[in-house]
Structures are given as structure tokens and as C-alpha cells.
Amino acid sequence: MAITMFMSIAVSGCDLVLEERNEQFDSRNEITESGYFEKGWIPRWLPDSATNIREKHEVDTIATVLVFEYSSGDEPPFGNECVATDSERVSAPRLTAHWWPAVAQLKAMPLLYRCPDDNSGFLAASADGKTAYFWRTP
Question: Is the peptide bond before 77 cis (omega within 30 degrees of 0)?
């Protein structure tokens, strides 16, 4: 069951209001039904085994943070065009959420990737080999 939360934020010093959405999905199939792949907020390379998926994005941009669990049969970078990188080349995400790790934690993860074909996103996988984090900032 997908859970949706909306939040609008006003950017200090301007009239720009950015609407943010938080989503939670049990499986990849729920995302397919929601249309989020087509809207571009969640990358299509998300593995079939993805579960416990949490996502936050800005409605009018491609800014996204995404965390999910995956089975050991799927391995990062999950067949997409991401390439291994080091922590010095990793950019901080623009969005944050209470479930999102600190930048230092992301940079300390053993598997770090830059995803040039996905609007310059980044992918990190935890040492337990079960949790992955994806983010992009326009």
C-alpha cells in the first residue's frame, strides 16, 4: 500500500514554492501501478526484488531521495549505467528526510556510484548488502 505525504515549502527570499511528496511502497509492483516510473521520480532500473521503498521528491523538479532493500541476487548498480566513484566526487542531496542518512554516512558506504544517464544521480549501497540509497539534485 502506497503512503503519500505532501509538503509545500517556501524558499526564503523568493516567491518560489516547491511542493514535496513523500511516498512509501511495499514493492516495485506498487510503483509501477502508481505511475512514478513514467513521471521520472523513481529510476526504472530499480531491481525487481526492491522492497520497503521510501521516496521523497520535489514535484516540479527531478530532486529525489530514495531508499530500498534488495535481495542478494540483485547487486548494485542493478544493471544501470552507473559507474563506481569515490566519496570525494559524491554530491550531497538537496532533499532530506528523517529516514535519510547524513552525507558523511553516505560517503562512508562501501559501494558508491555516479549515475550520469540518470540526471547525474548517485547510488550508495550499505555494507550489509541489503540496503541501497539513490539521490539526484538538479
Answer: yes
**Mean pLDDT of all residues belonging to the chain:** 86
Give tens-digit pLDDT for 62-120. 899 999 999 988 888 887 788 999 999 998 998 999 999 999 999 999 999 998 776 67
Number of domains the chain contains: 1
CA 85 to each of CA 53, 54, 124: distance values in angstroms, whole numbers, following the listed order: 24, 24, 10
Q: Domain range spanning residue 76? A: 3-136
- What are the two backbone dihedrals, phi and then psi, of residue 121, each rounded to the nearest 5 degrees? -85, 175
Contacts 24+ apart (CB under 8 A), 10-19: 18/58, 18/59, 18/60, 18/61, 19/58, 19/59, 19/60
In angstroms, the CA 56 to CA 22 distance is: 4
